[in-house]
Amino acid sequence: MEELSNVGSRPRVVIVGAGFGGLACAKALADTEVDVTVIDRRNHNLFQPLLYQVATAALSPADISEPIRRTLGRSDNIHVLMGEVVSIDPTARTVSLADGAAIPYDRLVLATGSKYNYFGNEDWQKHAPGLKSIHEARQIRHRLLLAFEQAERSQDEAEQRRLLTSVVIGGGPTGVEMAGAISELGRFMIERDFRSLRPEQHHVVLVEAGPRILATFPENLSDYAADYLRNIGVDIRLNTPVEDVTAEGVQVKDRFLPASCIVWGAGVKASPAADWLGISPGPGGRLPVARDLSVDGLEGVYAIGDTALALDEDGEALPALAQVAKQQGTFLGKALKASLLKGAAVPNFRFHNRGNTAVIGRNAAIFDFGTWQLKGRFAWLLWAIVHVYLLVNFEKRLLVSVQWIWRYTTRQRGARLIDENFIAPDK
Amino acid sequence: MEELSNVGSRPRVVIVGAGFGGLACAKALADTEVDVTVIDRRNHNLFQPLLYQVATAALSPADISEPIRRTLGRSDNIHVLMGEVVSIDPTARTVSLADGAAIPYDRLVLATGSKYNYFGNEDWQKHAPGLKSIHEARQIRHRLLLAFEQAERSQDEAEQRRLLTSVVIGGGPTGVEMAGAISELGRFMIERDFRSLRPEQHHVVLVEAGPRILATFPENLSDYAADYLRNIGVDIRLNTPVEDVTAEGVQVKDRFLPASCIVWGAGVKASPAADWLGISPGPGGRLPVARDLSVDGLEGVYAIGDTALALDEDGEALPALAQVAKQQGTFLGKALKASLLKGAAVPNFRFHNRGNTAVIGRNAAIFDFGTWQLKGRFAWLLWAIVHVYLLVNFEKRLLVSVQWIWRYTTRQRGARLIDENFIAPDK
Prior knowledge:
The structure is a homodimer.
Chain A: E1 12-16, H1 20-28, E2 35-40, E3 44-46, H2 51-55, E4 65-67, H3 68-72, E5 78-82, E6 85-89, E7 94-97, E8 102-104, E9 107-110, E10 114-116, H4 134-153, H5 157-163, E11 165-169, H6 173-193, E12 203-207, H7 219-231, E13 234-237, E14 242-246, E15 249-252, E16 255-258, E17 261-264, E18 268-270, H8 273-277, E19 287-288, E20 301-303, E21 308-309, H9 322-342, E22 356-361, E23 364-368, E24 373-376, H10 377-390, H11 394-410, H12 420-423
Parallel strand pairs in A: 1-2, 1-9, 2-5, 9-20, 11-12, 11-17, 12-13, 19-21
Antiparallel strand pairs in A: 3-4, 6-7, 7-8, 10-18, 14-15, 15-16, 22-23, 23-24
Helix pairs in contact in A: 1-9, 4-5
């Protein structure tokens, strides 16, 4: 173990990013003799697995987020900074922020997550937002709801068809969740609240470049999900790579799909931690790490979650999942504590698969536990219980439960707000 | 009664604005033989009395708003249009929308509410938003919360003082509510979540041009409110007209008050209904109406709520209050139904004062029922019950109640989100 730079005082751990990984790491270091600084661009953490429900008007942003200060506020050894990292100096061991501050560290944990990958077509982003932030979720909600209002008044048949069509790009869990939720929202709203429209006029197209949706799940679960989605009116187009995205719709192979709402869920890449370090990243922008989660060649620097390219015992890359980030965070927090306070070496990380899940619609979800699987209404109930449980604090759990029970009974959506600032940003 | 323009078909009532007045009017006309069209710029109505709680991170926007389609969706004779009115032709009896559509009417009800009056200094608005829309409430919340994050990191004493100061302009009910809520929020957040700050560093200044706050209430209630506010740390400056508002603070008389968050609550003016009609409005931009709420000299045109300058039996102008708008809406809806379907004349409107209330802080509110008054903890409880009851539907009532009970017990704030789109609007 190399010497600490601030001999005599408490060792300093800086964690960049307060997502699942960063928070778990900070919590494992809470109330220890280690000085912990958590840096995030936002003042709040976000329960991303339920962000699609904000985008489809079922929950409010505050229902799935919490100030980082509140989550970590009870521990005197943890400091929370809202700031934007611009570079890291691994020799001087400092993290530089946009406002010029330099934060020194003895150990640095990079847990900055991922963002959507447009594979070089970054101009598509404004037409096809992904689902990583509250701003994007609001943007999608706004486009969806506004299109219905416009369609209700449109006299032009082709324009009305475009307004009532959503295209979801990417058949992974996010794409499937969004396609199912948009389809259910649209049909229900039309039935209930719109006089000039018929439910069957609403179209959701799910575009997937590969041969099946939910490719990381076993084939029987993919098939179940595809059947369910087709049943609630989703038009699934497999083997269909996207060629262009415009304000008017999506170009695939030989045809153009006019659409008012386009959602991007076609793959992620790591946030620019590699750029900060001035090293070249691995596939998907991820930082290759050793089995102990340390970044190769940089002493005292670790990466976890979507930022890290970590391999398991068999040399397979661990997937970019919340449970991986969380387990790595807890593991690393405990290991750093033992290392900094007792001189123990950081052991190798082992991932314990808790099962993989995706929700498809009202009453339908899938679980893959490796040796066994679950699908249908019971899987949905389990999904709902697990997600309420994972929500950070008691008030949110209660609020989200009340809203779900209410919505399940009435099929109403509680957050059907068209944001004024998207309509008239200068007012 | 003049002839209807569409003899033989059902009479048409167009209501512009879906606030308290417009909604009450539409509800009174629900399920009748009258065709009702409700036009609003927004897709949702807003429970404005609780908007200050969105601005101070206690509630989410969706908690206090509901899609107009849902509120009115059950009645087949009511059509909801999201659109912006640009002009009215009282001769042709049509309402023109920004997209070129012309909506014909037999009776027109103008219920477009009011906006904040900057008395010719419209450039102050961007520094000192009022509290009329969700966008403004989010803007205030964002400025408040961001200032605490910046203050936590600031090394500059004067700048830190500016960051920790809010100025509320106007000592009416909105100003008092905001000053009390900001003061409580700031002290509690600092105590709980910020390491480098002390609660007594937080400053709230309430600036009032007149000799006392809450001037429309009896003097003993004003005094009670002022004492309570001073007690929770609000610095009240009476007889202090504002001379300038900048991004850095507020200029009053001989001194400049540096502040990070400035809130405008110093008077309202009616929205531009008079412009649409091409007539000159009365004081505060309001349309003078006869005792039957009809606009002088324009057949078939009525105005209610903040839009109207209506006089009571004694020739006094009715105040711009939600209860006035609501009573006028219900009255006019019923009267138009009798007029259009049975040929009855529209009678004179009489206002029934249900009591006037303002909330000052946790455990403190005032009620003025004319002959008797109420203040303190019991008034606050009554205020809370009344406001939960007035929230439109059951789900919202339940959600808001749960949050209030939780907050009352823990003093936590549930919606402490700093909006990313204010930070990085282009992302």
